[in-house]
Amino acid sequence: MFFQIFLHFVSNLSTIAVGFLSVMVRWISVLKKYVESTRQKKAIFSKQERLPCIAPLVTTVEETPQIVSACVRGHFPQWLRGYLLRVGPGKFEFGKDKYNHWFDGMALLHQFRMEKGTVTYRSKFLQSDTYKANSVHDRIVISEFGTLAVPDPCKNVFERFLSKFEVPAITDNTNVNYVQYKGDYYLSTETNFMNKVDIKTLEKIEKVDWRKFIAVNGATAHPHYDADGTAYNMGNSYGSHGSCYNVIRVPPEKVDLGETIHGAQVICSIASAEGMRPSYYHSFGMTRNYIIFIEQPLKMNLWKVVTSKIRGKSFADGISWEPQYNTRFHVVDKHTGQLLPGMYYSKPFVTFHQINAFEDQGCVVIDLCCQDDGRSLEVYQLQNLRKVGEGLDQVYNSVGRSFPRRFVLPLHVSLNDPEGQNLSPLSYSSASAVKQADGKIWCSYENLHPEGLEDEGGIEFPQINYGQFSGRKYRFFYGCGFRHLVGDSLIKVDVVNKTLTIWREDGFYPSEPVFVPAPGTSEEDGGVILSVVITPKQNENNFLLVLDAKNFEELGRAEVPVQMPYGFHGTFVTI
Ligand SMILES: [Fe+2]
């Protein structure tokens, strides 16, 4: 892949000079827009003082492979029968080598098992090839997002120099999310590798490489699912024609019992606006009929990525926030694979997680957690998260807050549509979509929250009643408030009435809330919220919390005397 990119770059050198003038003209226009956009809106930052130290939440822990019984206070509903599976980083060094970034830690798998009101817990480190190689060598031998693996110190100077030119091994430390294909569970990050796992034993079954099935270099850890189990995802490809964003479809059924993602297809390829500088994205939206891809000005400089090893920099060094560009929405018909002609733009923002998307009156409505400042990735260095006192406050105060926003994309825009008018027919949303003279549709968002959310530090890790309301008009979503660098509250947002319901306990940090529907109800919030709540306090236990999703009242908690780090994502699996 890197060689392909290199060849592509060299072959285009001659055209670079020819295009220089036109690029200059474009830059002047981009800069003009940037000046305008910064005038329009400033990113929102919160101010916090004397934040408590959370270093123990981002520190290496021991795994707990033997099942531990939790001490239940209150009650867990009798109908709640299944596993809450979560994953996140749990080991941050090997020998004398230390990881730099929170995202780099080795995947630790957590399993809470609920049955007849009782709860058990266990955890295991994923036995990825990366984990095993690092363990054998007692040092970091495979680079991660924010950490460059350095050459073996036992090699001589010449060998160490030469090793800088070797193609770097790609990590299979899949520490971001549990995803599902054809009824099987996989751990995913954003590289080409996933690890299939046995959710009962937490043992790795098989390592799967996307590249063996389709021409992509990876896929997100946030696929979407149709009701029949068909999975959709997105992944980049890099070739002689530049970089593309690809929409992937994986069929729901297995032809043979042992197969994995066989039958996966790329159904649409969207060319990146800049071949060597595609956007970074972490998730995408899906309605019943459409995939919505957001090309945001958080750019990956492929030249920097390819040369990271030679330059002695990590992959993270190749990602930059470039608010001189706007954010663009692409809409793809998921049945035909056709990219719709509409050119939807908005002022620059960054989104990591979409909340939900649906169709209404000829429009796609997409709700996203958005930040106006896209520099948060670089802030989540472990040394920053482990700071204390004023230093920690400064780190927090430098991160842009995330807020839920609604965008409306009218699907059937014609040449005859008037310029300068809002083309959204939706009376319930103040989001607008205005056709410009150049044919582009300029999208302005609606805030989905009351002002009180700013006091909660914004919201992230959004979850909905996915089984019944994904791709449909909905009313509620759940997430974590961020009055700290990790979630410090659970929030239910009513996007229709714009109200908040909040659960908080000082000194405790809840994980992404997972909604589990109660049997026999079709009410959107008829069910419970599960969240793993952890604390840096040595004399307090971590616990699995169960809330009534309607009113956020605590039903019970299952305390476990085990140290757990703050993780990323998870899922509930009924047994
Ligand atoms: Fe995520």
Write up what this structure looks like.
The chain has 575 residues and is α+β, with helices and mostly antiparallel strands. Helices cover 15% and strands 36% of the residues. It contains 11 helices and 37 strands. Strands 2, 32, 33, 34, 35 and 36 form a 6-stranded antiparallel sheet that branches. A 6-stranded mixed sheet has the order 16-17-20-21-26-25, with no helix packed on it. The N terminus is likely disordered. Fe (ii) ion binds next to strand 22. Its EC number is 1.13.11.71. One of its GO terms (molecular function) is beta-carotene 15,15'-dioxygenase activity. This is Carotenoid-cleaving dioxygenase, mitochondrial.
Outline the fold blueprint:
Blueprint: H1 2-11, H2 13-40, E1 68-69, E2 71-74, E3 82-91, E4 93-94, E5 97-98, E6 106-115, E7 118-125, H3 129-137, H4 157-163, E8 177-181, E9 184-188, E10 193-198, E11 203-209, E12 224-225, E13 231-239, E14 242-250, E15 265-271, E16 285-286, E17 290-295, E18 298-300, H5 302-306, H6 308-311, E19 319-321, E20 327-333, E21 344-346, E22 350-360, E23 363-371, H7 376-379, H8 382-385, H9 389-397, E24 403-410, E25 432-435, E26 441-444, E27 446-447, H10 452-455, E28 459-463, H11 466-469, E29 476-481, E30 489-494, E31 499-503, E32 509-510, E33 514-517, E34 527-534, E35 542-548, E36 554-560, E37 569-574
Parallel strand pairs: 21-26
Antiparallel strand pairs: 1-7, 2-36, 3-6, 3-37, 4-5, 6-7, 8-9, 9-10, 10-11, 12-13, 13-14, 14-15, 16-17, 17-20, 18-19, 20-21, 22-23, 23-24, 24-27, 25-26, 28-29, 29-30, 30-31, 32-34, 33-34, 34-35, 35-36
